Amino acid sequence: MPEIDTHTTFDPEQKQNTMKTTTIKTATRAQAFMIIFLCLIGITSYAQNWTQINSGTTKKLNTIAFPSSTVGYIGGNDSLLLKTTDGGATWTQLSYTGINFFPNGEHIINLQFLNDSVGFITVGPYSGSYATTNGGLTWTAINLPGNLCFNKGMYFFDENNGFIAGSGCFQGELISYLSGGNWQTGTWNLSNINAPTNLGTNTISDIDFYNSSYGLAVSKSGFVFRTIDGGLNWDSVSITSLNHELTSVMIINDTLAYAGYKANGNGFGLYISTDAGQSWNYDGNSATFAYPDIFGVHLSSSGRMYAGGYSYTMLDGIIFNNNNPLQLWNYDIVDQSISDLASHSDSVVFAVGDSGYVVVNYPQLISGLKKTNQQQFKGVLSPNPASQYIRLHSQITALQNSINYHIFNINGQRVQSGSTSTGIIEVETLNSGIYLVQVISDRLIEQYKFVKE
Questions:
Q1: Is residue 90 part of a domain?
Q2: Which of 9, 149, 162, 191 suits a disulfide with 156, CB 3.0-4.6 Å?
């Protein structure tokens, strides 16, 4: 595939040109003690208040995507497709055409939109993959090669370069790719994938790419598949000592990656790779006796990492977040199991899940500042307007010697973060305009709007 990504170039090892299967043993005794220790000391605090948004449905929601700060899509069970045009504040069910659903329960499993109009979905378990060019109103089937009966994992760089994956009828994992041709008229080919098993239940669940060469895919079989040649060939890495169904994958940089999995109450957190997917272990920094299944992972444009799923201890949903790779993860317990996460405007993150559940971390930033609830504000911010600094006198500053803060612009983008022990925050370098400053302490969050002259 041609070079189309601007990330740092991945330097593949020459010996990876030969396909291979690698078996990785995980969770040694020393690692197990470390996991228990981290579970006992708890998760460090960066709690995010998750606010429920009315989705208008009680059906299970499987996937969410935001191509822009205003337009977003949610796919759910029983052919449900929702759309927002106000940044996620309200959701409307789309009446669409073009998808040939099999009877007795067909679901939108995965979706990706390149912009507000052009998008792709996988429908299952049997109905294939489709694309739209008019914002989801009409869909056209994608004719994939070979025996790809069950479509689930998906990743598109653009309309001319992408991947759709799943499994074949009565056979194992398959990945098809489009390189340098339109999704409808171009030629789709099957990748050379080293799938050690031949079971139709071993479906590719998720795909992620760091650049146009290096990518990872995960399977229900417990195998991670790795490419360093743009998806033409995929090696396989087995985590056989755990035998957990892999659900999701997230590449952070050219060495670091995370994977979610379903362990039915026997998992401690995420899997982690620090060698570009060549080996995997339990991530001790996400270890918790919440015993979570992780169904969705997401990297926001601000660099904060998220993972969502279900806690077998709490019997509720769970959302992890972390802004520092290889540091302790934080988590929040929410009302329903989480299937997927997506973000817009740098820091506004949505999670979807069972029973029509939609939550957002910063509701006051949806569609700019127009929906800010002034009753949430506590204390006093001065001067306002400000030119060089602002000073906070609030409930949090009265209780703590030092506070963390974030400043967002009117588009919901985080433009400044830091800490202060005096309540004074320098704003001299900010451009003139309207801003929101947010101060955080455990589960207490305060917001203040100010004008920079």
A1: yes
A2: 162
